[in-house]
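Below is how a single chain appears once it has passed through the pipeline. First comes the sequence as given, then the structure the pipeline wrote out for it. We keep one example in the README because the format questions we get most often are answered faster by looking than by reading.
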Amino acid sequence: MDAQQNFPTLQWLEKTVHLAEVSPFEKNPRKITDEQFMKLKASLIRLGQFRPLLVTHDLKLAGGHQRLKAMRELGWTECRISVPERPITDDEYRQLLLQDNHENGVWDMDALANDWDLEELRAVGLHEVMNIPPMDKLGEEETPGKNQVCCPGCGEVFPVKGNRAQ
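Resulting structure:
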């Protein structure tokens, strides 16, 4: 028997609702730092809501808890949602909670370094992923200690044991 027959593909519809109609999941397994939350709010102000909240048929939130919180703090009254065309099971809901927040893939560091300006990367926090110091830390280069060596190409500092870098 085909797995597709047991679990038909969900169809999703987009619509706009009042924020007050959306109820968050009390046991949301994801969290972000205060700094990340401030960046999220800045992104919403700058770019708007480019990704809808993921909700159940009865408007219980499955994906976008931080965005919902940020929109409420910003005083927004409406938001875009993506809702399944049919009620979903508890198992489907639990899977959505994890899958929507699961980070897949990795950044292509060469593409980021070659195709994006440093200011763009800093604006969305990718400088942290690439180990580039934030603007306020520029000039505070790490100085190698007695048992360290600095790579002349990238500037990274490595510990040294004997006469070899580790």
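The first helix runs from residue 3 to 6.

See the next section for the split statistics.
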